[in-house]
Structure formats: C-alpha cells, structure tokens
Amino acid sequence: MNKMDILAFGAHPDDVEIGAGGTVISCVQKGLKVAVVDLTQGQLGSRGSAELRLVEAQNSAQIMGLAARENLGMQDGFFEVDKEHLLQVIKMVRKYRPEIVLCNAPSDRHPDHGRGSALVERACFLSGLVKIHTSHHGEQQQAWRPKVVYKYIQDYYLQPDFVYDITGLWEKKIEALKCFSSQFYNGETNEPKTPISGAEYFDFLKGRAMDMGRPAGFLLGEGFITSRAMGIKDFSALV
C-alpha cells in the first residue's frame, strides 16, 4: 500500500521544491506515486521555526499532489553519514520501496546538501542488503534497493547528466515554493535576510531553469546528476 514510484529526499523542507519541484509535479500529473522525506526540520534556519516549516511542508505537499511526506527530525547542520542516520533512511526506502530516488546535490553552498546526498545514496545501496535488519512499527522490513538515484541541482551550478522538461509547470512549482512563506521574500518581515529571501530569488530560479532547459531543447528544465551511466534500449528514448 505504501509503495511509491519515486521517493525524493531533501536535507531541509523546501529543498525538493527548489531543486526538483517541477519534476515531482510532472510525475504526479503523469499518474506516478511520489513521496518526500525531509531529513531535518531546518531548525537552524535564520527565518521561521521548525514547527512552522513542518506546516509549510505539508501545505506544499498538497499543492504538488504528494502521496506522502515525512520528516525524520535529524539535527539540522549536525547529522552525519553514520550508522544511526543511515538506518533512518534505510527504513524509509524499505517502507516506500521506490523505483527511483531523488536526493540533494552532491556539492552545494549549504554543506547539509552534499552530506544529505551522500547519506541517501549510501543508504539506498545498504537497503538492498538482506543481512541489515530493520523494522517499522514492529514489523520486520524486507530488503529493497531502488533502481536508480538521481541528484537534483540546487544553488551551485553543476553540469547535469540529464534535464527534465518542466515547461508549463513553472507557476505550479512557484505555488508550492510560496507555501514556505517564512523562507522567501516578504517585504513586511523584519527577519534576517538570507541567500534565498531576496525579491530576486525566484528570478534566479527561473533563469537557472531556462539555462538548464535550453541545451536540451526545453524552455524550462531541472537538471539531475547520476552516479552511473544511464542505459537505453531504444534511441527514441533520447528524442
């Protein structure tokens, strides 16, 4: 009942929306089941609060049409790629049994992004090992390894291995992002300015989407990085 086609991880609430929101919306509209797992509540964020960001994340989940969204409550800024945190991610992978996993960029301005990327990628491999035992709500979980892990590009520009067409979905992506009102531009707040809170930030995101999309022949795109070569059985898959 919990099986998902795609499971997207973010180090913080709003990471998935920023890096892969259009892709997630497109997949949901195509009939795929998508869930999001946020590793932390963004407790160290300069704006808003952990409690508010949980509410914002659920509001965004409704806009995107997610089948489920969870938060693992890891410590923002201090989680590590260790046994404790790997097992938390493994439990989510085994719970939702996705074919595809999306996760943070391998290197980015915020160090949690690269660390979250490494954590999820390693956990996805370990999740397929039958001698690693986990349980969820008292029930023994079965080993499960996703077919692929794709890393969405965030603040720093990284060369994508492929680009997902999000043309026509921009307004829906921005609607989901605006659910995180504590994090983005609000001319009436006195909270500290951050790299994503300026009035120009959404313009930057659209420029990035145009930059990603253009070489692939799309008006707007979201870029992804793979850890291994992608295989095809028909050249028409590349058209």
Describe the overall structure.
- Helices cover 35% and strands 18% of the residues.
- Helix 1 (15-29) crosses helix 5 (170-177).
- It has 239 residues and is α/β, with parallel strands linked by helices.
- The two termini are 34 Å apart.
- The protein is built from 6 helices and 9 strands.
- It is globular and about 55 Å long.
- The protein has helices at residues 15-29, 50-64, 83-96, 111-126, 170-177, 201-216, and strands spanning 6-10, 34-40, 68-74, 100-103, 135-136, 139-140, 148-152, 162-165, 221-226.
Q: How would you describe this structure in keywords?
A:
single chain, two-stranded antiparallel sheet, globular, seven-stranded mixed beta sheet
Helix content: 25-40%
Sheet bearing the most strands, described? 7 strands, mixed
Question: Helical element count?
Answer: 6
Which of globular, elongated, flat, extended, rod-shaped describes the shape?
Answer: globular
H/E series, N to C?
EHEHEHEHEEEEHHE
The beta-strand count equals 9
Mean pLDDT: 95
Strand order in the sheet with the most strands: 3-2-1-4-7-9-8
Q: Could you list the spans in which at least 5 consecutive residues all have pLDDT below 50? A: none
**What structural class results from the helix and strand content?**
alpha/beta
What Rg do the Cα atoms give? 17 Å
Strand share of the residues? 15-25%
Calculate the terminal CA-CA distance, rounded to whole Å. 34 Å
